[in-house]
Write a structure and sequence with these properties.
With 678 residues, the protein is mainly beta. Strands 8, 9, 10, 11, 12, 16 and 17 form a seven-stranded mixed β-sheet that branches. Strands 36, 37, 38, 40 and 43 form a five-stranded mixed β-sheet that branches. Helix 1 (2-12) runs antiparallel to helix 2 (16-29). The protein is globular, with a radius of gyration of 28 Å.
């Protein structure tokens, strides 16, 4: 009897959907006499054999998603220097897709000859300086497009930490459609966010660079010649693409601008950027100077930047800008004169700057300060109105008085970084040094009435060295109160030893409806790059295509002019050019022999004429570095020179059918010498 009782106890712990499976198993498999010989007995036997505690079993049930069922959430995670983006189901923590962003990726056929991907990669190459074909990136902060402050499941934006670029991923097919080298920004870090109605995606510079971009100045002239930028990139609502013509930048001082967040509800129309190194240290330890990190950590306060982007739109409309490298730039003096930029002291090398769901509070973690500092947007506005400044920075930007705008501080522990929120008036802050997450009450408006406005409630250890954390729907105006994920940088002893390079460690934590206590449910190793940040969206907001409409060009999401239907296959020879319209359908390519001469330009248009869900084909030619993913309904275009004579096999790279291995053909490149002899 006690076994059945234990299962009921599990149910009472709130794992109803998952527990139902156990009940079904217990009812279906039990022999009904309660002697423990049924499924309940089986569970105990399994637990015993595997050394699992009742806690382990509960957590397994919380994470388990039965075969054929979907996860409740999708995590959109950056992939760090893999240059990719991952889609992960939650709570199961299963990887659903790896999306190419800045790095060629053969599964999605990105960067291996298919026109859509090559075009995206090429368009993303930097212009100042020009001449580099970048084939990697360091994806950092994903930002899902929003409507009314809620994730809307349309587009994902992600920045490249290394090269100051932004990529746009279309959530209709989860493929990257645009990579933009943002002018006047060389590197970016956490300056990514979308505004609450996706008017703009924002990215700001990390380290400043000599301005205008493309010029040179020694770091000895750092203060005079180096500048950063806050870029407001206009989103085309139909395509999700960034329209640079309607975008603008604001010149900002040569500090190291860091994490940023959009104002929402109470603070809509504003953006906030943390910074460090207001000392403007440049390093030089081998030249008799100070190491960069020591020089950058001297001041007691750095500056939170508050930017009024709504007002900046008016300044642009009034023509008060300069065109610099193809984008409208509001110069720093104009930003000061027009009241677009204010600085707010933030303690000791701050990192995260996070706006709470109400938009009333901005929470900052100081890496070298045990407190999180909570600023009031209302107090900020009052101080600006009253010109309650403590002075200006070296560039003339007004600095608001710390005591006038600070709402409260909470001593959380060592190394506070990033803060996420629930809907019950709580903040959750990651602490790198402490390897823990702190939960605290956030402000006078806390829902739970018996709590003090700014008070530490509890901390939970994580494993190890946490960077970001994310709550479900965490950056929206209405976070869910069930799950939180810790993105830990070190895994150390959590997994089987597989060499000196360890996976990152994601940990799934139960928020218990915001009521706590916090409880660790599961670990998830990620052995791909260094996932940096994630946003967690309700899965019912997904509106991806099941198949492309017939003949779709994945880049434009319109009908490819070269698309064919079955029966429309043909080869045309025109001078030195051979143009082929090919179909792919289980289990053949038509035509399956392509004859060209060495030196011919080959234009190849392949249409997957299938409209069956999951009937994807691939197309690869040996020794030509060509690989495409031909998804149902997709037309893919290639253009290349047949510069290597020989007989090359081409084949379908997706196991599409029983005769998948037979889905192949020949690319015959007749040597020029042989052709001449004939
Ligand atoms: Cu088509 Cu395998």
């Amino acid at each position: 009897m006690k076994h059945r009782f234990r299962i009921l106890a599990l149910l009472a712990l709130g794992v109803l959907a998952l527990g139902a499976l156990v009940v079904a198993a217990a009812c279906g498999g039990g022999d009904g006499d309660g002697d423990g010989n049924g499924a309940g007995g089986d569970l105990d036997a399994i637990a015993k054999a595997r050394g699992l505690t009742p806690e382990d079993m509960k957590h397994a049930l919380q994470q388990f998603v039965p075969p054929g069922k979907y996860d409740d959430y999708v995590m959109i995670s950056s992939g760090g220097h893999s240059g990719q983006v991952f889609v992960i189901g939650m709570p199961s923590m299963r990887i659903l897709k790896v999306i190419a962003a800045f790095t060629p990726e053969p599964w999605q056929g990105f960067g291996y000859g298919a026109d859509w991907g090559d075009t995206v990669l090429e368009q993303g190459n930097p212009t100042t300086p020009a001449g580099t074909d970048l084939t990697w990136g360091d994806t950092h902060h994903p930002a899902i497009s929003e409507t009314g402050g809620e994730y809307d499941g349309r587009y994902i934006y992600i920045n490249d930490r290394a090269n100051g670029r932004v990529a746009m991923i279309d959530m209709r097919d989860f493929r990257v459609k645009q990579v933009l080298a943002v002018p006047n920004i060389q590197t970016s870090h956490g300056g990514m966010f979308v505004t609450p109605n996706s008017e703009y995606v924002h990215v700001s510079s990390k380290f400043p660079m000599p301005w205008p971009a493309g010029s040179y100045a020694d770091v000895n002239e750092y203060k005079e010649k180096y500048r950063g930028a806050s870029a407001w990139l206009k989103i085309d609502q139909e395509t999700g693409r960034i329209n640079l013509d309607e975008s603008f930048e604001i010149e900002i001082p040569p500090y190291t601008q860091d994490l940023a967040d959009a104002g929402k509800l109470a603070s809509e129309g504003w953006g906030f950027i943390g910074s460090f190194n207001t000392e403007m240290a440049t390093g030089g330890d081998a030249e008799g100077g100070e190491p960069l990190e020591a020089g950058a950590s001297k001041n007691n306060f750095d500056f939170l930047h508050a930017i009024n982007w709504k007002k900046a739109e008016g300044v642009i409309a009034a023509g008060k800008f300069e065109e610099m490298n193809g984008v409208k730039v509001i110069r720093l003096q104009t930003a000061i004169d027009e009241g677009l930029l204010y600085l707010i002291p933030e303690p000791k090398s701050p990192h995260g700057a996070d706006v709470d769901p109400s938009g009333k509070y901005i929470v900052v973690g100081g890496k070298l300060d045990p407190n999180v500092t909570i600023y009031s947007f209302d107090k900020m506005q009052a101080a600006i109105e009253a010109k309650d400044f403590e002075g200006t920075d070296p560039f003339g930007v007004p600095i608001l008085k710390f005591d006038s705008v600070m709402a409260g501080q909470v001593e959380v522990g060592a190394g506070p970084l990033h803060t996420q929120f629930d809907s019950k008036g709580h903040g959750y802050t990651s602490m790198f040094l402490a390897s823990a997450i702190a939960k605290f009450t956030l402000g006078e408006d806390v829902v739970t009435t018996d709590e003090e406005p700014f008070k530490l409630i509890e901390t939970i250890p994580v494993h190890y060295n946490i960077g970001h954390l994310a709550t479900a729907e965490g950056d929206t105006v209405s976070p869910d109160d069930n799950y939180m994920v810790a993105l830990n940088k070190w895994s150390i002893d959590r997994y089987a030893p597989i060499g000196p390079l360890h996976p990152q460690n994601f940990q799934l934590i139960d928020l218990k409806g915001g009521e706590g206590p916090l409880e660790l449910i599961a670990d998830m190793p990620i052995g791909i790059g260094e996932p940096h940040y994630t946003q967690i969206m309700k899965a019912d907001k997904l509106k991806a295509l099941e198949v492309y409409p017939p003949g779709t060009d994945a880049l434009t999401m319109t009908t490819d002019p070269q698309a064919i239907e079955a029966g429309g296959e043909r080869v045309e020879r025109n001078g030195n050019t051979v143009e082929v319209w090919m179909s792919a359908q289980r289990s053949h390519f038509t035509p399956d022999i392509l004859r060209v001469k060495e030196g011919n330009t080959v234009k190849l248009h392949i249409t997957n004429v299938e409209q069956t869900r999951d009937a994807t084909h691939g197309f690869a030619i040996a020794d030509y570095n060509i690989q495409a993913s031909l998804e149902p309904g997709e037309t893919s275009d290639f253009e290349f020179v047949a510069d290597k004579p020989g007989a090359y096999n081409f084949y379908c790279t997706e196991f599409c059918s029983a005769l998948h291995l037979e889905m192949a053909g020949w690319f015959l490149v007749e040597p020029a010498a042989a052709a001449a002899l004939r």
